[in-house]
Write a structure and sequence with these properties.
Layout (H helix, E strand, L loop, with lengths): L4 H11 L5 E5 L5 H9 L4 E4 L2 H7 L8 E4 L8 H4 L5 E5 L2 H13 L4 E7 L12 H13 L5 E8 L7 H22 L6 E3 L6 H6 L4 E4 L1 H4 L3
Parallel strand pairs: 1-2, 1-8, 2-3, 3-4, 4-5, 5-6, 6-7
The structure holds pyridoxal-5'-phosphate (PLP).
Length: 220
């Protein structure tokens, strides 16, 4: 399976009028494929593995916005802190604090999303509602000036049952709206949900950013 440029153009045209950001998930795919989408106008790319991101970033155009969408280990934060655009998978205060410290070291602020556990599978990372409330209380008590919490990210269950997927996305959207009013700042504006198989349901449920890989680049 290979890169599908026509699919990309179709998707970009579908999402733009809805103000939904398309992140092209390029994990395991060669820099040549990324360059083709870049030349077609794509600027937001998502990677899951720090090592792979560190190999690709220096050889690709510097105006690419790199989204880190994988599970980030604290000891890997420093290496991506100078350039990462948005870290989607923050699911602990310790990780958020580490990003804060490394952002200050790099002389910048780093935008982050809190990853919520919305699927019924055990394997997916993320916070539940109680953990979210605790983390929120902690960041309110001790503001971390190196990070900006821009919103939330989540993954629906891996199932053909679209009603389940829709219910999970709607649940995440309602949490997002709730914390948006708690945050009280306009920059809490990003809800990252939806992948190749379920991005349309996600957009209907209020997603502002979809992470699409295989539909664009072919199966991994
Ligand atoms: C791999 C991955 C995607 C893209 O998945 P596709 O099904 O290929 O679109 C999106 N989000 C995360 C967190 C991923 O790990």
């Amino acid at each position: 399976m290979t890169l599908n440029l026509a699919q990309y153009q179709h998707l970009a045209e579908e999402l733009a009028p809805k103000n939904v950001t398309l992140v092209a998930v390029s994990k395991t795919k060669p820099v040549e494929d990324i360059k083709v989408l870049y030349d077609a106008g794509q600027r937001d790319f998502g990677e899951n593995y720090v090592q792979e991101l560190l190999e690709k970033q220096p050889v690709l155009p510097s105006d690419i916005r790199w989204h880190f969408i994988g599970h980030l280990q604290r000891n890997k934060v420093r290496s991506i802190a100078p350039f990462v655009h948005l870290i989607h998978g923050v699911d602990s205060y310790r990780l958020l604090n580490e990003i804060h410290k490394e952002a200050l070291r790099a002389g910048r602020q780093i935008d982050c999303l809190l990853q919520m556990h919305i699927a019924n599978e055990e394997t997916k990372f993320g916070l539940d509602a109680a953990e979210l409330a605790a983390l929120w209380a902690q960041t309110t008590a001790q503001p971390l000036t190196g990070v900006r919490i821009r919103g939330m990210m989540g993954m629906a269950s891996f199932t053909d049952n679209l009603a389940v997927v829709r219910a999970e996305f709607q649940h995440l959207h309602s949490l997002f709206v709730q914390y948006q009013s708690l945050a009280g700042y306009a920059a809490f504006d990003t809800l990252s949900m939806g992948m190749s198989a379920d991005f349309r349901i996600a957009v209907e449920s209020g997603s502002t950013l979809v992470r699409v890989g295989s539909l664009l680049f072919g199966a991994r």
